[in-house]
Amino acid sequence: MALRHAVLAALLDDELSGYQLAKAFNVGVANFWHALPQQLYAELARLETDGLVTGREVVQDTRPNKRLFRVTDAGLAELERFAATAAKPSFVRDELLVKVQTADRIGTGAVIEQLVERAEFAAAKIELFTSLLEKIRGDRDEEDFLLHGTRIGPYLTCLRGLAFEQGNKDWCERSAAVLRARRSAEV
Amino acid sequence: MALRHAVLAALLDDELSGYQLAKAFNVGVANFWHALPQQLYAELARLETDGLVTGREVVQDTRPNKRLFRVTDAGLAELERFAATAAKPSFVRDELLVKVQTADRIGTGAVIEQLVERAEFAAAKIELFTSLLEKIRGDRDEEDFLLHGTRIGPYLTCLRGLAFEQGNKDWCERSAAVLRARRSAEV
DNA sequence: TCTGAATAGTCACTTTCTTGAGTATGATGG
DNA sequence: CCATCATACTCAAGAAAGTGACTATTCAGA
Questions:
Q1: pLDDT reading at B162 higher than 90
Q2: This protein's superkingdom (chains A, B) (predicted)?
């Protein structure tokens, strides 16, 4: 019963189809939640039967028809209730970190490659989030926007995502450099 | 089949009981993986039948007896194989971020409290990781240790954990301050 | 002396997630 | 003209994870 709130939170700003929601879960929403499209479609169906979202059919001629969902008053009340309960500690699952943990006991060639890839991926996210933040705040400066702007929630979570990816990039580059240096030292 | 590698990685440095492993998954290992004790006991049993770890009974008189597990050669080979496969992207799940995402649509009192709590929790982790890093590297300086030390894997993942918690703390404090300022502005 | 926490686990049940496949159409690129 | 990608979803099966309760002993604190 936790994906449910992530979906409601994601739908709060825009009316989205399941497909669009799935894409949102691959970029911005991925800063705080992870889910596959199948889960999202299933969760949307449950949310609708529970009356927390409503869907409306949109007929398209050049594309398959779609259903757009928005949060109902009951959905907003559910989020309100959720915000008041204690949050579970965050959790991370990262295979790459598992691999690095074993780095002094196994061959590191493949791990170094993956660290480089991950650093590049993080760099791309950094660019994405940077421009997304600019877009949200428009021409205001950050202080002003944070105090008086709307859509402050998505802005703040995006800031967290940016810092996370920055940390990721720095760490991946550092770790790759260290492992490379050890490989040449070891010969 | 992914918890499996996290368990192997955690057992690589020390021979641990299920109970000790569970505690490890609450601190250092939590930087890259999350699991409950029941899962760990079950996974250890599977790993043992698969020959990737071996357990030995240790009789204690003041405490209940325990079984200590260590990674076998087959287990190490499995980690080697795992390191060579492509890593899935990391994923995060954080209820607190979900709540912040909704911050401009709901009452923020409870969320601010939780941000403060989380910041304090992060501060405690920062201290823990800082002293853990010092303990691992002893009196060497970091550059020297990273190039020539042993147990480099745990050191690197701990560095990531430290940076993550630092980012967490900064973001929580900043966000709490922003939401507080908006509350007083709104009156 | 009683309570609660720490050690060291086990069992059963339920929910959630992942894997993999399948449907159908239109647009894009070579 | 054909292949592939993007849109927009659905279904089923199996693996993984989470919830909650339970056993048993020892130590520390009120």
A1: yes
A2: Bacteria
Q: Give, rounded to a whole angstrom, the gap between the first and last alpha carbons of chain B.
A: 53
Nucleotides of chain C in contact with protein CB (under 7 A) are 7-12, 15-21, 24-27
Which nucleotides of chain D does any protein CB come within 7 A of?
A: 7-12, 15-21, 24-27
Q: Which amino acid is at B134?
A: E
Helix axes A73-84, B109-137, angle to 10 degrees: 50
The 10s digit of each residue's pLDDT in A53-98 is 999 999 988 888 999 999 999 999 999 999 999 999 998 999 999 9
Q: How far is CA B28 from the centre of its chain?
A: 4
Domain positions in chain B are 3-84, 95-186
- The answer to whether residues B155 and B133 touch, using CB atoms and an 8 Å cutoff, is yes
pLDDT by residue (tens digit) across B79-117?
999 999 999 999 899 999 999 999 999 999 999 999 999
B5/A95 Cβ within 8 A: yes
* Banded model confidence at residue B63, pLDDT cuts 50, 70, 90: confident
Q: B91-93 and A91-93 as β-strands: parallel, antiparallel, unpaired?
A: antiparallel
B8/B32 Cα distance (integer angstroms): 13
Q: Give mean pLDDT, residues B144-169.
A: 97
Report pLDDT digits (tens) over B15-49: 999 999 999 999 999 999 999 999 999 999 999 99
Q: How many residues are present in chain B?
A: 187
- Domain A3-84 sits in CATH at 1.10.10.10
Question: For B157, which of A76, A100, A146 is closest by C-beta distance?
Answer: A100
d(CA A128, CA A133): 9
Per the structure block, which two tokens stand in for B121?
A: 């929790």
